[in-house]
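User: Structure please.
Assistant: Input sequence and predicted structure:
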Amino acid sequence: MLRQVYLNSVNHSRTHSKTLNSRPCSTNKDMVMTTQLLKTKDAALILGLSKAFLERDRWAGAKVPFIKIGDRAVRYRLEDLHAYIESRTRKSTSDTGKR
């Protein structure tokens, strides 16, 4: 069920251009990289968290990586959210994730 919600949110983000900023970044004429940037509410939906949680997380030290654009705009890269999800994956409740 959670996986389906996650997949639906990713598809939702890809189809709604107002909530997803895809910016081409070019350092070389032959290489163009596109980065998908999500607003806080979209990142919260993907992670299954509240928007307020992500706002507090940024204030408290940002366990979830974010990008600050200008003075006020905050965005999350989709690949950073994927990496965060993978880093939080555990095999049991006693698994602390520390090695």
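The helical segments are 2-15, 40-47, 51-60, 78-87.
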